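Final report, closing paragraph on structural work. Over the funding period we assembled a curated collection of sequence-structure pairs, and we close with a single example.
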Amino acid sequence: MLDPRRVLILRAVASAGSISAGARALGWTQPAITQHLNALERAAGTPLLLRHAGGVTPTEAGRVLLGHADAIHAHLDAATAELDELRQLRRGTVRLAAFPSALATLVPAALARLEPGLDVQLTEAEPPEALTLLRDGSTDVALVFSYAEDPAPVDDHAFGHLAIVDDPVELVLPAGHPAAGAADLRLSDLAGADWVAGCPRCREHLVHNTRVAGFEPRIRHETDDYVVVQSLVGQGLAVAVLPRTALAAYRNPAVVTRALPELTGRRILALYRTGADRIPSVRATLAALGAA
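Its predicted structure, as stored:
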């Protein structure tokens, strides 16, 4: 097989008109250039250049190969230009998986900070699914959350992480609930209430906090949809806890919220495959998420 590097050396020599001029143009020594040309001719099985006092002249085989050399050079120029565009963030694609409330709040604010040529492809996924997508290479960045009482979201050295923001969790009550305006409200004051619970990890978080407060919550309704949660609460059918990002994404006017010191919050993290943060498009996306 012909070595494309040597084909490009042939092109440089033919363009310069002599081996010595070609060597100067490439910044190599003349003997090194001669060695490469000899090796190329052996691989081609025929002379490619005729040497004479005035320089070199391509043979018929040399002219055929030089036509391909121009194509190789053009392809490399195109590749260099594309890589430069990626480095300069004039183009590029990043696949981002995120949970619903982040997609409604943090992600749009982050995307607004990115260069127009950067194409971010979004997938809605709760943290366990987002982590699976990251493991199998179906996404580049996974936006997940971890409650204070949870173990580390990932202890795999194959992944890096960036802490994005602390996301407090607040008590959500009907606007007319007796506890809504209580001066010294405690979580245990809601021990007799009906509750709405969300995703499995959100439910575990609720149960953890109520048990610390000394009671087992009576979970009457279950839904992952924070709009539905607030609708149920607003109708006086239950009480709930929701993270502040969910409340920022949508706020039902029939509910009130209370921040209780007893309620542990969660941290939002961006996970990525180790080393992926060196890719300009991924690095820019992580920076935008942090800034948002």
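The longest strand covers residues 159-167. The chain has three domains: 4-87, 92-166+267-291, 169-264. We thank the funder for supporting this effort.
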